[in-house]
């Protein structure tokens, strides 16, 4: 990575700086819906990388509470302020999503040791398939118990989730789960 320097002899020349690569990473997931835990990881990735893709997996065998388009709209809304996050749906292998967009790194949050076993398997498989790297970010302890499934369960029974999800998501949950 090129850095700016006060020393003219160390500064990159024009042609070199024009070739500075864009550092891209992807935060993949189901995001049904995005939680404060996801948002924390995306925010931290957006500080480390020039461009962060949020990849929303399309799973045709599992009907979510929100459609993929609804999830994407919510993620757009709550990540807009970061300025370098784009949101896309994907179907198939994550490594193909990465290859098509020249993304060398997957960023994942690790909430607890229990996440590690499966995440390690996926990271090793993905690396073996195309060489893509996975970087694990320790989840903020405030969100170590948090998952989309638990949020949906609590919200379904009328529990308060306002401290667990961004406000647009809380509103969307309230509307979707409102009793007729
Ligand atoms: O939010 P989730 O459901 O825990 O996210 C899981 C996800 C989407 C990251 C994972 O299932 C995935 O990468 N699926 C894409 C299919 C794939 O590439 N499978 C091989 C993984 S080794």
Set down the secondary structure blueprint.
Layout: H1 14-18, E1 24-29, H2 36-48, E2 51-57, H3 68-79, E3 85-90, H4 94-101, E4 105-110, H5 113-130, E5 133-138, H6 148-156, H7 167-177
Bound molecules: 4'-phosphopantetheine (PNS).
The site of 4'-phosphopantetheine has 9 residues, from strand 1 and helix 5.
Structure description:
The protein has 180 residues and is α/β, with parallel strands linked by helices. The chain contains seven helices and five strands. It has helices at 14-18, 36-48, 68-79, 94-101, 113-130, 148-156, 167-177, and strands at residues 24-29, 51-57, 85-90, 105-110, 133-138. Strands 3-2-1-4-5 form a five-stranded parallel β-sheet, with helices on both faces. Strand 4 (105-110), helix 5 (113-130) and strand 5 (133-138) form a beta-alpha-beta unit. The longest helix has 18 residues, at 113-130. The model is unreliable at 1-12 (pLDDT under 50). 4'-phosphopantetheine binds next to strand 1 and helix 5.
Q: What percentage of amino acids are in beta strands? A: 15-25%
Order of SSEs: HEHEHEHEHEHH
Regions with pLDDT < 50 over 5+ consecutive residues?
Answer: 1-12
Summed up, the helix count is: 7
Quick one: how many beta strands? Answer: 5
Overall structural class, as computed from helix and strand content, comes to alpha/beta
If strands are numbered along the chain, what order do they take across the biggest sheet? 3-2-1-4-5
Largest sheet: 5 strands, parallel
Approximate shape: globular
Radius of gyration: 18 Å
Mean pLDDT: 92
What is the helical fraction, as a range of percent? 40-55%
User: Which small compounds were modeled alongside the protein?
Assistant: 4'-phosphopantetheine
Distance between the termini: 55 Å
């Amino acid at each position: 990575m090129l850095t700016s320097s006060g020393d003219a002899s160390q500064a990159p020349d024009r042609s070199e700086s024009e070739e500075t690569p864009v550092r891209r990473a992807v935060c993949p997931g189901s995001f049904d819906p995005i939680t404060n835990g996801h948002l924390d990881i995306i925010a931290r990735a957006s500080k480390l990388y020039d461009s962060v893709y949020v990849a929303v997996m399309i799973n045709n065998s599992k009907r979510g509470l929100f459609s993929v388009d609804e999830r994407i709209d919510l993620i757009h809304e709550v990540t807009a302020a970061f300025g370098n996050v784009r949101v896309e749906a994907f179907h198939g292998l994550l490594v193909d999503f990465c290859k098509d967009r020249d993304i060398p790194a997957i960023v994942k949050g690790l909430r607890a040791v229990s996440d590690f076993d499966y995440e390690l398997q996926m990271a090793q498989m993905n690396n073996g398939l195309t060489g893509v790297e996975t970087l694990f970010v320790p989840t903020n302890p405030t969100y170590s118990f948090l998952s989309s499934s638990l949020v949906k369960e609590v919200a379904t029974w009328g529990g308060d989730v306002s401290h667990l999800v961004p406000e647009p998501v809380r509103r969307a949950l309230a509307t979707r789960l409102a009793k007729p």
